[in-house]
Write a structure and sequence with these properties.
Blueprint: H1 7-29, H2 83-91, H3 105-114, E1 120-125, E2 128-133, E3 136-140, E4 173-175, H4 186-190, E5 198-202, H5 206-210, E6 216-220, E7 225-228, E8 231-236, E9 256-261, E10 264-268, H6 277-285, E11 288-294, H7 301-304, H8 311-320, E12 323-329, H9 343-351, E13 362-363, E14 370-372, H10 373-377
Parallel strand pairs: 3-4, 4-5, 5-6, 10-11, 11-12, 12-13
Antiparallel strand pairs: 1-2, 1-14, 2-3, 7-8, 8-9, 9-10
Amino acid sequence: MDVFNNKRNFFRFIKDKSYSALLLFLASCTSVPVTNRDGKKTEDTSTIFKTEESYIRPYHHLPDGTFRNPEGSVEQLDYEFPWFKFNKERQKIKVKIPEGHVVPKQNVLSELTALENEDTVTWIGHTTFLIRLGGKTIITDPFFSPNAGPLALGPRRYIDPAIKLSELPKIDLLLLTHNHYDHLDTEATKNFPHKKAAVLCPLKLSKFYKDFRFRDVTEMDWYQEKKMDDLKITFLPAIHWSRREVFDRNRTLWGSFLIEYQRKKILFCCDTATGEVYKKLGKEYGPIDIVFVNIGAYEPVDIMKYSHANPAEALDIAKNLRAKKVIGTHWGTILMSLEDPFEPPTKFLVNAKNYGYQEKDAILFKIGETKTIKQILS
């Protein structure tokens, strides 16, 4: 180029390009007030670089890229969690496993094989379920590790998974509700035997799966829908939070999955506290045929009430959703809180009538047990 024929022209060229780069940098960093047609400044300046003419940031999306619970939820104030005292009290708990809580593994595998052409639900443990609908097998929050935490840290299981990770039947769809270690299990994800399965996960969590070579991963925001053959999946709000590291609180989303299949609605809830949002969801999406709701990890109440419902609150959530049947989850597997580990199912059944349910409508599984959808709905 002629521009480089002498040193003076060369440095003039560089100087001009530097000015251009500086101007672009300043433009990208400057917060320019957004004005309306009258020239008045609007309240929200987050739309300045949006291509849409009238972008409205959803309530649960915060300007710093983090997320928050649905409007009207009771939010926990910042405080210093008493980990030392909490862990000391938890270590005092003696776990006594009731007879019949676990189905023998050979029976689990034989039932899965015998009912492979039926629509069924199988409890692997904690919030890990196999849901078979129309020949497709869905797994929820696959947690198979001996502890819920990085490396060997975190609460430990007192019950093994109903079957090994390697013994899972072919999985067509994996649903992840949030990133806590008892739901997003690093080792289970790394060693998952069916990586051709489709994965639906909350916003900002797809990289975790792609790093472990899952091929079909879709992030979802609240109220987004996804169709998979004869299944329709809608991602819905829950009252919870996310964190895996010291400084990443609420940087990934959390939520529940509504599965619609042959005029039936099955809602698999993320860990959640109770709140007004469930009345709204009940009006918009109810009645629900089957809802899975957490019933464990609610003590001490002052700490847990912001993220985990107790058994009575779980039934209240189901009632607000206009659910016909309620399956209790998040209990009987791992010691995460201070209540007796087998108190939740008792309180769940005792409180059913107080929320308009018969005892047969409040459904509990043994670990490894399989029930048909017809049995559950009968």
